[in-house]
Amino acid sequence: MGLNLTKTNLAEKAEAGYEFEVLMPGTNEPLGAFIKVRGKESKAVVAYARRKFNEMQLREKEARRKGKEYEMTLDEIEDNTIENAVTRIISWRGIEEGEGKAVAEVPFTKENAERILREYPWIREQVLEQSSDLLNFL
Predict the structure, then answer these.
(1) pTM summary value
(2) Which stretches of the chain score pLDDT less than 70?
C-alpha cells in the first residue's frame, strides 16, 4: 500500500470546502451559524495569494523607481486580510441581523461578507483559522 494521490489531493478537497459552526470567542459556545470555507490549498485561495503577491511586487517596483520604499498601511493590511477571508468563504447559513420581529437571515454575498468580516473580526479569525487547518480537508 502506497501513497494514493487521488485520496490525498488537498487542493481538490480544499476547493470542495469544509463547514464549521461559528463559536462565541472566550466561551466557545456554538452560535447556530455555519460557514463553509475553502482550504488554503484550494485553487481559488492560491490564485488570490498569487495575485496579491504580484500586486505587492508591482507597488514595490513603482516605489523604488521613485526612490522610495513601499510600506503597507494598517488599513491596507486589514483590507487584504478581509479580502483573503472573503475569498475562502463558499457559503453560510444561520447568520442573522436585527432585533425582535425584524430579525432576518443575512444572505451570503461578497458585499455582506466584507461588511460582516470588517465589523466582526472574531468571525474573520475563525474563517481564516478553519480554512488554514488542513485536517479539516482530509
Answers:
(1) 0.87
(2) 6
